[in-house]
């Protein structure tokens, strides 16, 4: 039978983990509303419903909280990309899964996507101070998906898959930016689903397009 003080250690650790997560969730909401530079640690503590000093028990400053948001959420993102890359499904289905994941992330947690777009992906200051390789891993995974599809004859042989990976991620980021900025207004689930279908069609048909009819053929007709 465990001693009371020994049994209390996991309980304290569990409470600490939950408190840290509350801080991260609260900071995500505050950063989405006010931006990193406009937010105060006191705002985060109030949002989390905890004492001001408890935030500093877990994080040195708000920049460190932003780094935690990136590391934890980006890690999940990369995990999903790897899962899709391991799938034997056709490239249209795999890109469809990626697009659905990105759109659903925004739809279910717009604050998180707002922070990821405004405070991380578009912040040269943040990217320069963190491991760029971690960010570039997403491009490498998407490039691998496209290379696999190219080897199976799903994409044309002359396609530069690295360039196409930038196209895929860049197009997705711009659509998500439109959601975040409110310039691409969507409210109903059906609207988001329609966006997914059209984005996948644009991406896949763009890289699988039928070769243009030759001039000689055009002249003959």
Please provide a written account of the structure.
This protein has 221 residues and is mostly helical. 79% of the residues lie in helices and 0% in strands. It has 2 domains: 11-59, Arc Repressor Mutant, subunit A (Orthogonal Bundle); 63-208, Tetracycline Repressor, domain 2, CATH 1.10.357. α4 packs parallel to α8 (132-151) and α8 (132-151) packs across α9. The N and C termini lie far apart (90 Å).
Key attributes of the depicted protein:
single chain, mainly alpha, Arc Repressor Mutant, subunit A, 11 helices, 0% strand, disordered C terminus
Low-confidence stretches: 214-221
What is the percentage of strand-forming residues? Answer: under 5%
Helix/strand-derived class?
Answer: mainly alpha
What is the helix/strand order? Answer: HHHHHHHHHHH
CATH class of the largest domain: Mainly Alpha
What overall form do the CA principal axes indicate? Answer: elongated
């Amino acid at each position: 039978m465990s001693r009371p003080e020994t049994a209390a250690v996991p309980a304290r650790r569990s409470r600490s983990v939950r408190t840290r997560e509350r801080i991260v969730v609260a900071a995500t909401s505050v950063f989405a509303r006010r931006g990193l530079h406009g937010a105060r640690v006191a705002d985060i503590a109030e949002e989390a419903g905890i004492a001001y000093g408890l935030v500093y028990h877990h994080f040195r400053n708000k920049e460190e909280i932003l780094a935690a948001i990136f590391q934890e959420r980006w890690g999940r993102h990369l995990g999903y990309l790897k899962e899709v890359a391991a799938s034997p499904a056709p490239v249209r289905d795999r890109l469809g899964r990626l697009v659905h994941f990105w759109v659903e992330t925004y739809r279910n947690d717009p604050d998180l996507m707002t922070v990821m777009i405004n405070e991380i992906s578009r912040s040269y200051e943040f990217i320069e101070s963190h491991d760029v390789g971690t960010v570039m891993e997403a491009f490498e995974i998407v490039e691998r998906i496209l290379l696999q599809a190219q080897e199976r004859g799903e994409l044309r042989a002359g396609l530069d898959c690295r360039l196409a990976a930038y196209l895929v991620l860049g197009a997705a980021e711009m659509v998500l930016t439109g959601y975040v900025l409110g310039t691409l207004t969507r409210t109903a689930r059906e609207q988001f689903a329609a966006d997914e279908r059209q984005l996948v069609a644009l991406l896949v048909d763009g890289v699988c397009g039928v070769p243009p009819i030759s001039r000689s053929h055009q002249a003959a007709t």
